[in-house]
Design goal:
By secondary structure, the protein is of the alpha/beta class. The chain is built from eleven helices and ten strands. The radius of gyration is 21 Å and the shape is globular.
Length: 319
């Protein structure tokens, strides 16, 4: 590297450190590529509330920029100055979109600094009570005997729940028809009403319906059974190796000064340990993680490779 380049690079790092040090002047913004009220937004707001004190009283705010499966918010962060003032709360679609979209205006790995995985959220495969099966094994048998006659409600094309269903079909070798909806709520309502038979859903969205007997829980997508549903088998008990948990992670732009990214990662990980934050995560059916940047970055790269196979199998195209 030439001396002039070194000076420019060093100067940029000093400016970035200086900008981040201006406590009280510029809030830290966490951009969320999903509408207000959803799981990603709720977790981002919980994290922001707990990160502020961990950053010495720095103001941390959440800004929603929904659209294109989270790509609008991700692109804004990828192009933001690496001063630690603009962060991204992303989710599983960050990895899925790498294959789902033919072209992206950013690189999902190279254009970001991975800070920590905030939480994971397993889902549950539910059925309308009229479906004549009591577990995953019976469902696979029924689906193989009636190819194309069963259907899945999908809350969004390319979502982690959509891909959970595609991974299930790919591994089980069954053909189940997808019925797309614009949002989880109407999809759940039609499964409750019997217009659609099956659905992969976030635990928080169907937990009360399962307890009330309005939906049958056939299996959970975590590697092991969930404490909330100890009597519901993991799908992996029938399909070894099956696992599909949504994840939520905090990123910054690429090329952040190491001391800035460390401070932000440490603050986020400290916030995740906060009892109030844990309580909020539990209410969302989420499992806290709070890992270091290096394993989280490796995890994201592994997720991109894993979901590429499922996206190609599904033939899904972006909405």
């Amino acid at each position: 590297m030439k001396r002039r380049d070194i000076l420019i690079s060093s100067g940029a790092a000093v400016l970035a450190r200086g900008a981040f040090a201006q406590v009280g002047n510029t809030p830290v913004r966490i951009l969320v590529g999903a509408p207000a009220g959803g799981s990603t937004d709720t977790l981002a707001r919980s994290l922001a509330a707990s990160m502020g004190p961990a950053l010495g009283g720095r103001t941390v705010i959440v800004e929603n920029r929904p659209g294109a499966g989270g790509n609008i918010a991700a692109d804004a962060v990828a192009k933001a100055p690496p001063d630690g003032n603009t962060l991204l709360m992303s989710f599983t679609s960050h990895a899925i979109n790498a294959t789902l979209y033919p072209t992206l205006p950013f690189d999902p790995v190279k254009d970001f600094t991975a800070l920590t995985c905030v939480a994971t959220s397993p889902s549950v495969l539910v059925a309308n009570p009229a479906v004549p099966v009591k577990d995953v094994r019976e469902l696979i048998t029924l689906a193989k005997s009636k190819p194309g006659q069963l259907n899945f409600a999908i809350g969004g094309i390319g979502s982690s729940l959509h891909m959970a269903g595609e991974a299930f079909k790919m591994q089980a070798g069954v053909y189940i028809v997808n019925i797309p909806y614009r949002g989880t709520a109407p999809a759940v309502q039609d499964v409750l009403g019997g217009q659609v038979q099956l659905m992969f859903a976030a635990v928080g969205n169907v937990q009360q319906h399962i307890k009330a007997g309005k939906l049958k829980a056939l299996g959970v997508t975590s590697a092991k059974r969930l404490p909330a549903f100890p009597d519901v088998p993991a799908i992996a008990e029938t399909l070894p190796g099956y696992e599909s948990s949504a994840w939520f992670g905090l990123f910054g732009p690429a090329n952040m000064p190491p001391e800035v990214s460390k401070r932000l990662s440490d603050a986020a990980r400290q916030a995740i340990k906060d009892p109030e934050m844990r309580k909020r995560l539990d209410s969302e059916g989420a499992i806290p993680v709070g890992d270091a940047p290096e394993p989280f970055s490796a995890f994201v790269q592994g997720e991109i490779k894993r979901w590429a196979k499922v996206v190609k199998f599904s033939g899904a195209k972006p909405e």
